[in-house]
């Protein structure tokens, strides 16, 4: 019975996200240099999704220049990136309660700080409030051979993966 309810909840959640994304796309994504993007997945009992604006490299120097080291970054373009989970989950073995969160990062040449902040409905990082951080994680990103022109988040094998230019990191997701 719980599996059937989880599947129904996931389907309903997915339909709502598709409707929201398509209505946002028609109204705001047309002609945007950084189009809206969305991905979602179903863990055993949790529906998880991410919505973000996807800038392109466009022959620019990204790390340490367009995205300065040591500064808070909205981890995308335009509105803050939004991560949502229907149930509490663990990210890198750290608990994140159910809810919607903005995703911020503080990039560095060696380590990154990944931040899930309770103030999810905001533009950029202009109103970032550290006191509303729900979860903060330190990771070491990888430099990979595969080039990614547009910033991309996606779910793969119970991980949330970030890939832009030659930089990539993956966050483990468990319940």
Describe it for me?
The structure is a single chain. This protein is α+β, with helices and mostly antiparallel strands. The protein is built from 1 helix and 10 strands. The strands form 2 sheets. Strands 1-2-3-6-7-8 form a 6-stranded antiparallel sheet, covered by helices on one side. The protein has a 4-stranded antiparallel sheet with strand order 5-4-10-9, with no helix packed on it. Strand 9 and strand 10 form a beta hairpin. It is globular and about 45 Å long.
Oligomeric status: single chain
- Largest sheet report: 6 strands, antiparallel
User: Roughly how many Å apart are the termini?
Assistant: 19 Å
Q: How many beta-strand segments?
A: 10
Molecular shape:
globular
Which stretches are poorly predicted, pLDDT < 50 over at least 5 residues? Answer: 22-29
* Fraction of residues in H or I helices: 10-25%
| Beta-strand fraction estimate | 35-45%
Q: What structural class do helix, strand and pairing data support? A: alpha+beta
Number of helices: 1
Radius of gyration: 16 Å
Give the helices and strands as they follow along the chain. HEEEEEEEEEE
């Amino acid at each position: 019975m719980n599996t059937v309810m989880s599947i129904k909840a996931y389907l309903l959640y997915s339909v709502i996200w598709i409707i929201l994304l398509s209505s946002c796309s028609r109204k705001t994504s047309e002609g945007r240099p950084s189009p809206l993007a969305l991905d979602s997945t179903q863990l055993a009992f949790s529906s998880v999704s991410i919505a973000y604006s996807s800038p392109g490299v466009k022959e620019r120097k990204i790390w340490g220049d367009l995205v300065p080291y040591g500064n808070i970054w909205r981890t995308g373009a335009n509105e803050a990136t939004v991560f949502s989970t229907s149930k509490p989950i663990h990210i890198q073995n750290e608990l994140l309660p159910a809810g919607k969160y903005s995703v911020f990062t503080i990039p560095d040449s060696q380590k990154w700080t990944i931040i899930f902040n309770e103030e999810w409905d905001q533009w950029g990082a202009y109103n970032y409030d550290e006191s509303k951080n729900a979860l903060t994680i330190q990771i070491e990103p990888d430099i990979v051979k595969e080039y990614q022109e547009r910033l991309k988040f996606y779910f793969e094998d119970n991980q949330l993966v970030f890939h832009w230019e030659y930089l990539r990191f993956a966050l483990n997701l468990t319940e």
